[in-house]
Input
Amino acid sequence: MFFRNDALAPADSGLSPDEWWKGAVVYQIYPRSFKDSNGDGLGDLEGIRSKLDYLKGLGIDVLWLSPIYASPQADNGYDIADYYDIDPMFGTLEDFDRLLEGVHDRGMRLVMDLVVNHSSDEHPWFVESRSSRDNPKRDWYIWRDPRPGYVGGEIGAEPNNWGSFFSGSAWAWDEATGQYYLHLFHRKQPDLNWDNPQVRHAVYEMMNWWLDRGVDGFRMDVINLISKDPSLPDGIVYPGRSWGEGFPHFSEGPRLHEYLAEMRREVFEGRSATMTVGECPGVRRDNVLLFTDPARAELDMVFHFDHVDLGLESGKFHPRTLRPGELADCLSAWQEAQGEIGWNSLYLDNHDQPRAVSRFGDEAYRYESATALATALHMLRGTPYVYQGEELGMTNSVFRGIDDYRDVEALRYYREAVESGESPESVLDGLALTGRDNARTPVQWDAGPNAGFTDGTPWIGVAPNYEEINAAAQVGDPSSVYSYYRALADIRHGLPVIAAGAYERIVTPSPAVFAYRRILDEAVATVLVNLSSQPAVLGDAGRGVSGDLILANRDLPEDDRGVPEVLGRWEARVYLA
Ligand code: GLC
Output
């Protein structure tokens, strides 16, 4: 790596204190796979606390914890049975307070995952709701009679034809009360009825409780799904699918923006220094300002899915190879859509995605492609997110058979695809490429047993390359992926043009090159990245670049720091004028 950190000065970026998150780097922790402190094979809060200095050392400003609430763990905690308590597998509320204190002591902040499109079926709200048709909480969830002319429970009797994201129908039959309830995800994740004001106010009360306890904000799970078209119409059945596509009827539903604005008023108004990010699968570019235009007072930023969904036209587990430039074009189009009004979340990896270096990079050039992708992403306008292990260049894992998988999505999909005639080998090939468990293998801390994650038996296998790829080997090594991520965080903190500048794409002759400028007053930063495993011509695009090299993902002798004609495979450079 080449890095001129003397070019940075902790200057005033001009951001107002309420916009602190524009200059921040967020780190996502998937607690069950982060660090185990008590030998039960599952990560926990004490494990996280033991790594706070590591995170501070990486230049992290905000930790986002995937759900740690009490949960039967049908979907690894995205099925919450008590919003006010910590699951015993992770620790206690006292452990949480201690963790939060440790985070704040180091000048970092912590945001919780907010999972309120649905609860667990074991949440007392749902237990009451299903207890009888006239229970006062009946209407807290979405209950419907069988389709007219059908007997409940028989095939075709579901109130509509929507499929669940986790295979099968989105409706579950409740024999005791003779109705179906809606679950867009697992049947143990019944959808809450946001049209009921009592539900909304119960959620706001809970959010206020956590903020009063000291947390700094929320990442909101599938928040664009909370308002359903009340007539719940059938969806189109696409060829080869058994269920209808309900998505247009519950993504960005009729009252979504009303609810988000109400939440903002009821929870965030009058508080300072909070942060909100909405996970919004399927939200289109043209609509993004509806969520993030500050004048509308809804969310600070959203996670869109367009770039991680590239090449999945034939289904999530049948990805095609991406065309050169496809990823860059997509990221760039979102930069332009947000413009200078809205704000972006910048991510490639999370707990639902395969490892970015395996999907968008090239494992044969692991350091090069991990750092090139990171450069392309982190220098954009928006708040960058690092998912645990991404800073080490962790790769997809090697799963030998279906028994190695733990994810409910993978297990259900496997069963359904094999039953419908696909060969087990081909289903496993798809899961190996895009299955969520790739991201959920334990963080590789060192070269010792279980990669230093646990003294016990890890709940899911450790990726076999941990002896080579681990934190102990990378911290302190200036040529590591970790050190490179540290440099990217330093740049965001020390260069206002990166934190706050405008974005402008540079056209290049080779589609493999992603080139752009960031501009703030007199300052211009130019980012040149080759996102491919072949050399790529920069041509005329290089001629207009001014300034000095401040970052590159390789060592460069003094006479090679000007703008080159050709970028080597996965080469990344940042110039500053
Ligand atoms: C989100 C989460 C995912 C979960 C789903 C249902 O997409 O990121 O992990 O399975 O919502 O809560």
